[in-house]
Structure formats: C-alpha cells, structure tokens
Amino acid sequence: MELERVQQIASLSKCMDTIPTDYIRSENEQPAVTTFHGAVLEVPVIDLSDPDEGKIVGLISEASREWGIFQVVNHGIPEEVMRKLQQVGKEFFELPLEEKELVAKIPGSQNIEGYGTRLQKEVEGKKGWVDHLFHIIWPPSAINYRFWPKNPPSYRETSEDYAKRLRGVADKMFEYLSKGLGLEPSEMKDGMGGEDLIYMMKINYYPPCPRPDLALGVVAHTDMSGLTILVPNEVPGLQVFKDDYWYDVKYIPNALIVHIGDQIQILSNAKYKSVFHRTTVNKEMTRMSWPVFLEPPPEQEIGPIPKLVNEENPPKFKTKKFKDYAYCKLNKLPQ
Ligand code: OGA
Ligand code: NI
Q1: Where in the numbering of this chain does the Fe2OG dioxygenase domain appear (predicted)?
Q2: Per residue in 181-237, pLDDT tens?
Q3: Which ligand is nearest to the Cα of residue 291, counting in written order?
C-alpha cells in the first residue's frame, strides 16, 4: 500500500536522521532559520473571570487588532471536559491505520470531513508533517456521524459535551468582539449566520519528526473561519507572525487559544486582523491540537458590517457567499 499518512512515514523514519525531501521546506520557511529566539513579545493572555467586563472587552479588542490571536483562561469549560476531549482524540489516532481509515475522507469529494492528510493544494509540492480528522460538531442538523470515530466508544459523548460547553464561550467571544467595535452585542454573531453558525472540529496529529529544523506541521496560513478556538496538548509548536517575526505561542495548561479568522477580519472591515500562523514539529514528542473553526453557513453573504463603513473607511473587501470564499481559498484563487 502507498504510504500516505504522515504517522506511517514517521514510524518508519524513527531511527533515521533524515526525512523524505517532500517534507523539507525551502530555506525561507525552515523553522530553524526563521524563528525569533529570546521572544520579547508574547501573545496576550486574558482572564475571562475578571468582574470588570469593560476591561475584558478592551483587552480582547486590542489583542484582535494587534495580534489577531490571544489565549483565554478561566473560560468556564471544566478541565475534565478538556482532558477527556484530548484523551479520546489521542486514543483514536493511536488505533491501527485500518481502523482510522474507516472514517477517511471520501476521495474526490468536496466535503473536507473525515480522516485525512492533505487539505489544500500544496505550494511547490511540499507537504506538512501532520495528519488530521475533520467533522462538524454543531448544529445537530449539520452533523454527519459517518465521520465520527466509533472507537473509542466514548468519542461521541465526549465531543458532544465539549461542543455544548464551547458554544457558551463562542457566544461570549462574539459579544466581546462586537462591543469592542461599538456594535450591539449580537451583531458579530448575526453577521456570521447567527444560530446557523457551523462548528467544524479538526484534530491535528503531528508525529515526532527526525528533522524538526527542516519541516513544518501546518504551513503558514490564516484560517478562513470567523473565529477558531483551539485546545493544544502540552507540546509547543504553534507560531504566529507579527512585525516580520515568527513567535512561539506559550503553552498554558487549560487555556483556549482564540484565532481571528478571515471572516471576522472582513466583517470588521480589517479593524480586527486574521492571524498568520504555522506550526513546527518536535523530534521526540507527538504534538496534537483540537481547533474548532466557527464558520458561517455556506450561503451566508459576508462583507464589512455597514455601520463600520463610511467615507474615511471605505469597504476593504468584497461581499460574497462564504462557500465562494472557501472555494477560492482552498484552490488558491484570488478573492
Ligand atoms: C490549523 C492550525 C494550529 C495548531 O489547523 O489551522 O493552525 O496549533 N493549527 O495545531
Ligand atoms: Ni490555522
């Protein structure tokens, strides 16, 4: 059988000190050459239990304008719920390949859901050192359980529990982001499709890599979602680009990492910025992450919110359906 999954390639290259050339990035991308060391700047960390809501709004607004990314602590999702989410995901990826292939992406299908390896057209044919699993976790009408692992048996209940808790955090985030722009609390979420908002879960699995200095996990990109809320495991790897440098994002136990995606950048008419980020891999340890992409439904038209546009601030983006935006992004066509 053709070796397709990075997990298989990793297990074969364990005792070597090389990786297949497909995974060696060009020099201007290699983490060993391009990472800023001795970081003086750090992605903002925001405590959501602060009784001063105005302060939270100010911090989130500032972080979203300056960085497009921040971490939140005391967000209300119990530690146990996050621990279980990580446990069932890890158990799934540790199953034999044949079992994982039962929920594989359907070849040739437009649907991104399922177990897979490559997501979009690769730049210069270079590959990322990562496998993934995608499936929708909310709303119930959009869920297709065909792409949810049956094993471990508690996978479904655990993921549903996380989805339920995450909705509370997401609603709060949209509210704070609205207030940070002087909008009504519901305006940002309404712009994203309101209750039809889609929660797309992704699990990234980055096996140990013999040459982490030469490879990347996920290549540099911005998320096409509105907002992405991510749970990492304890192995660092996420990097963000700011003022010409790549910075490591520090691991904080039980924190959630919130990314501003392209759709919020568009709705805010670029007041908030969609963060450019990538991931590095590790020589000995397996990195995993659980981002949930909060996306508008396919038919939702997204453009700058009219209140944010005037003569001094003309619209910076076209208004278009999310499905058309997604098609261009995945096929690397101009928007
Ligand atoms: C992604 C992504 C970051 C991470 O999957 O879009 O940016 O920390 N992942 O794994
Ligand atoms: Ni991303």
Answers
A1: 197-296
A2: 999 999 999 999 999 999 999 999 999 999 999 999 999 999 999 999 999 999 999
A3: 1
Q: What are phi and psi of 84, to 5 degrees?
A: -65, -40
Q: Indicate whether 49 pLDDT > 80.
A: yes
Angle 155-179/79-93 helices, nearest 10 degrees? 130
Query: In which element (H, E) is residue 267 found?
Result: helix 262-267
Catalytically active residues, by annotation: 202, 221, 223, 277
Q: Is 194 left (phi over 0), alpha (psi -120 to 50) or beta?
A: left
Confidence of residue 31 (pLDDT cuts 50, 70, 90): confident
Q: Which has more pLDDT, 122 or 282?
A: 282
What's the topology of domain 6-331?
Answer: Jelly Rolls (2.60.120)
The three state secondary structure string of 231-249 is EECCCCCEEEEECCEEEEC
CA distance 335 to 323: 12
Question: What is the DSSP secondary-structure string of 133-166?
Answer: EEEEEESGGG--GGGS--SSTTHHHHHHHHHHHH
Separation of CA 278 and ligand 1 centre (Å): 7
- Give the mean pLDDT of the chain: 94
| Single-letter code of the amino acid located at 102 | L
Give the contacts of 193 (CB within 8 A, at least 6 positions apart): 296, 297, 300
CB-defined site of ligand 1, < 6 Å: 202, 204, 218, 223, 230, 232, 238, 277, 279, 289, 291
